Amino acid sequence: MELVFEEFYRSIPKYGEEVCGDNVEIIKKENKTIIVLSDGLGSGIKANILSTLTSKIASGLLDKELPLKEILSTILATLPVCEVRGIAYATLAFLIIDQDQQLRLIEIDTPAAFLFRNNKVIKLDYNEFELEGKKIRESNFKFQRQDQLFLVSDGVTHAGIGALLNFGLGWDGVAKEIQRTVNKNKNDLKYSINKLVKIFNAFYNNQAGDDFTIIGMKYRKKRKLSIWSGPPLKKEDDQILAKKISQAEGKKIISGGTTAQIAARELNKELKPGLKYYDKNIPPTSKMDGFDLLTEGLLTLNKVLSLLKKYKPGQIPVEGKDGASRFTRLLLESDSVKFFVGRAVNESHQSLNLPINLGIRSQIISQISEQLRRIKKEVKIEWF
């Protein structure tokens, strides 16, 4: 079974602030994943600038594979210190996990990580040392198949302070909430993170007294998605394409009415057109056995592109029941996306009644692919 390392996070700004003072940087390579979390002192724009600077310096140095002590010395020398309070303007936690599932975690002034293993949340074993006058925690361990690891900023451990709880949740309180939530749905990391955000925000009476971030990570089976859009140039390729999409591993989408008709004919399946509009600008979806979604073509693809351009990691996944929203969700939920794109020209697409910026199918799919690569998806395109 092909596994992927999945990570997902949510950041919530302090109540009344426009931006979050925490920042997360993620670098995914073929042989490793780097995750960095920094919490800027205070909240709002100033804190965001400090945490962004810190996390970008750290991730850049880690990506260069410099010795750990050199990386830490550079970061600690770079971090400005508050003259009044005598503490760094930003905290830092980062980890590197390699292709052998060996994980190395460093924490500087952040809450200790939470490891979910065998249905319980446990503390990691740490080696503590001092560098440049700063206490640093380090943990090295083999990440097991069913493990889940969570990093948080102190806005999570402080949740409820001065309101529902005198001293906030603390590490133990957060551990209990993570354990309870993950045990309800171990397979869906995004569900766990979104649920935990609601829980921690509720301890603040839904008016967060501090920025807070929670990052979750785990291994899971690779999610694959195949999409067929457009009839091929050669008529004899109809059957080839229909066979490719029907035998593809994972979830499947057909984009375009003509494409759906070809698939129904070649696969001897019934095509059931939909009539219900969930969005007046997006045509209804259809149904066919063996496929997860059948949509109209260019209007839907154009909307998908628009939604992807607006999407940023850490946001709530796209909502909506219309074809474009469902299409986008399937893309975001997948690790590997393969397009089978037919290049036959549909005369109706040349109509002057279509918006000028609608473009043609191949251009839109190429742009969708660029957006998917931006958010670290594997993308392949086969042209027919």
Describe the structure.
- 33% of the residues lie in helices and 27% in strands.
- By secondary structure, it is an alpha+beta fold.
- The chain folds into two domains: 3-221, Phosphatase 2c, domain 1 (4-Layer Sandwich); 224-383, 3-Layer(aba) Sandwich (Rossmann fold), CATH 3.40.50.
- Strand 13 (251-255), helix 7 (257-267) and strand 14 (293-295) form a beta-alpha-beta unit.
- GO terms for molecular function: phosphatase activity.
- Residues 4-219 form the PPM-type phosphatase domain.
- Keywords: Hydrolase.
- InterPro entries: Bact_Sigma-Reg (IPR052016), PPM-type-like_dom_sf (IPR036457), PPM-type_phosphatase-like_dom (IPR001932).
Topology:
Layout: E1 3-12, E2 22-28, E3 32-40, H1 44-63, H2 68-78, E4 90-98, E5 102-108, E6 114-117, E7 120-122, E8 127-131, E9 134-142, E10 148-152, H3 154-157, H4 170-184, H5 189-203, E11 212-221, E12 224-229, H6 237-247, E13 251-255, H7 257-267, E14 293-295, H8 298-310, H9 323-333, E15 336-341, H10 361-374, E16 378-383
Parallel strand pairs: 12-13, 12-15, 13-14, 15-16
Antiparallel strand pairs: 1-11, 2-3, 3-4, 4-5, 5-9, 6-7, 6-10, 8-9, 10-11
